[in-house]
Amino acid sequence: MQNGAHPPPKPAVNGSAAPPAANGTAPASGGKPQFRQQPYRPPPYRHHRNHHRSRRNLCCCFCFWTIIIVLGLALLAAIAGAALYVLYRPHRPQFTISSLRISKLNLTTAADSSASHVSSLFNLTLSSFNPNSHITFAYDPFTLSCFSNSVLLANGSIPAFTSATKNQTVFRSLMSGAEDLDADSVTSLRSDLKKKGGAPLTIEMDTKVKVKIGGVNSKKVGIRVTCEGIKGTPPKGKQPTVAPVSDADCKVDLRIKIWIFTL
Prior knowledge:
Blueprint: E1 26-27, E2 33-34, H1 47-88, E3 94-109, E4 116-129, E5 135-139, E6 142-148, E7 151-158, E8 161-163, E9 168-181, H2 183-193, E10 199-213, E11 216-217, E12 221-232, E13 241-242, E14 249-253, E15 257-258, E16 261-262
């Protein structure tokens, strides 16, 4: 017990385990100490969070400026479109029925009522007007059809022409027809011809048109002009009857889109 010496450890009694050493190691059965190795745990890595956060901020910034640019371009296009609309002021072409003379309109039925036939001859005068100052219309040949309700009476045509700005063009067309009718058509037409004011007539004109605005040309598109409000009566003798056209109204079915303009 002198000179700072410690007494040796006592042996275990009845097979009990020896106490651990002072440095935390347990003595082996042979008397040699065993070291217990702890698993390696790397320090937490936090840089990837900052990296993802910066990428997310970059994407948000890119989306924000993309939306701003798109909205800016849309606003500029709207302003330019409004300015060009004020400059050009596009309008649809106008068509007017000037006169309609009926030289023949006969409905005949066979003696045995097995077949019915309608023959007609019309002399039509109409005009086309372009109200635009900077737009030109180029028309293909027109196909004309005259109906009384749904019964076809006559056909005709108008040659191709170009309607310049502020231009009015007058045409004359001879329309004729010889059609076989079914029973329903005969009944409808006979009833219309007996009306006091005459049979209601509808004239349809179909063609294709190309539009030129400044130096821009559109593709050819279909156009239909429908004129209603006309009534006609069969002539008595050789003198043609004149159908009243003061109430005639012609509607233009045309949808042409050139850049921002829709006619």
